[in-house]
């Protein structure tokens, strides 16, 4: 059998950690090969080695049977290897076309021929079904389109082997379906794909083979046809995973959050949240279900002080918090696990320990008389790292060098530990492995059982259905229905979210 890629006995170390130990990965031409493993198992590292971003300490890489030495990404490109990273690497102020041709500009008479470049971009985008607007600025387009730009960038450079590092973690269900179609088209055109994903359903649906790694060690490669989600989960985690969250009946008490007639405008000044009413009580989890772009982001930004409201009120424990600055909202008792962990969740160039006290560093015991007390900060950090299973060499490691999922676990740990009266969890399990998801769901339910109010925002209907006590469906900036997860189906929820069926927003109290 001919392999397009062979990575043999790869070893890659970082200070204090062996990220890859003797790992083997063999990818056949024309297949989609999944790479599966827990958060921090070493998947991104292995792919960064293949893409020339890291040099392995040991091992051999062959491309189309020939041994190669990939010392930088340009060499990877020349060998036909392209990578779409876990965190995108686009330049916000540049257009789609400028980003795609960056470093490969076509010039005539010393000038960049933008028209020609745009036409080329149009051509490849049509061929692979990757719809983009060549003239749009990156900062103005959706995450899904940004990802298509990243894919086009690799194709523009002639990639034959594409590495996708968790491409679906940042996408909505609709965008995931589109990406799956795109991957199928790429395979038809003779490309090969290495796909990193935590979603076992996606592996079962589109992949041919799957290689499992655990804690930096290769566990083996299986034919997808011959395996199932349960087996894959236990191979990667090293124990059985239940998938289903168990919880007792909710016992809601006093109102914690009370939103009345709320108006919020989006960044373009258009009404995003329109006369919205919602309340959450102590001891319940309310899930927000909706198609992306129906006001959920603006709603959360308004509650957390990241966005001004244009009318109405937001009360926490009876006190108005609308239009307070974020620090005041936090002090009033709101915790926030943000959707975008890099923008609002972490300071990447701070240590993971410092990140654990981002909102509390100026309070006792972390500061005294205006002087920070490192000892207290790092003792706290150490215990959170242990409790939330954040895999890091130490509490002094920079947040930037943690794996994506472990960055996420650190944020969750910090927010849950502050024990806020209202915990807002926006896509809390994005990028987490199945074991970590199980753990986080339990923690959200624990918060509820301790009498806290939890607001859960997720695009994963399964998560909304499993974790919430009540589901509020948001459509065009309004809550159009409140449903009981025990009395609804994913289908019905889907129709409500699409605005296709109406249900009176009853049961608000
Ligand atoms: N640049 C770096 N410097 C130091 N340590 C690193 C660096 N990159 C990764 N690591 C460490 O190597 C290990 C593997 O990380 P990697 O990012 O490969 O995990 P992953 O399998 O992609 O996880 P996730 O599913 O969370 O993205 C982790 O312990 C991580 O902290
Ligand atoms: Mg990763």
Automatic annotation (TrEMBL):
UniProt cross-references to SUPFAM superfamilies, sorted A to Z: P-loop containing nucleoside triphosphate hydrolases
PROSITE patterns: ABC_TRANSPORTER_1, ABC_TRANSPORTER_2
Residue intervals of the ABC transporter domain: 5-240, 257-501
Key words, A-Z: ATP-binding, Nucleotide-binding, Sugar transport, Transport
CDD domains: ABC_Carb_Monos_I, ABC_Carb_Monos_II
Alphabetized Gene3D superfamilies for the sequence: P-loop containing nucleotide triphosphate hydrolases
MF GO annotations: ATP binding
InterPro entries referenced in this protein's UniProt entry, alphabetically: AAA+_ATPase, ABC_carbohydrate_import_ATPase, ABC_transporter-like_ATP-bd, ABC_transporter-like_CS, P-loop_NTPase
Record-given protein name: Simple sugar transport system ATP-binding protein
Organism in which the protein naturally occurs: Cytobacillus purgationiresistens
UniProt lineage: Bacteria, Bacillati, Bacillota, Bacilli, Bacillales
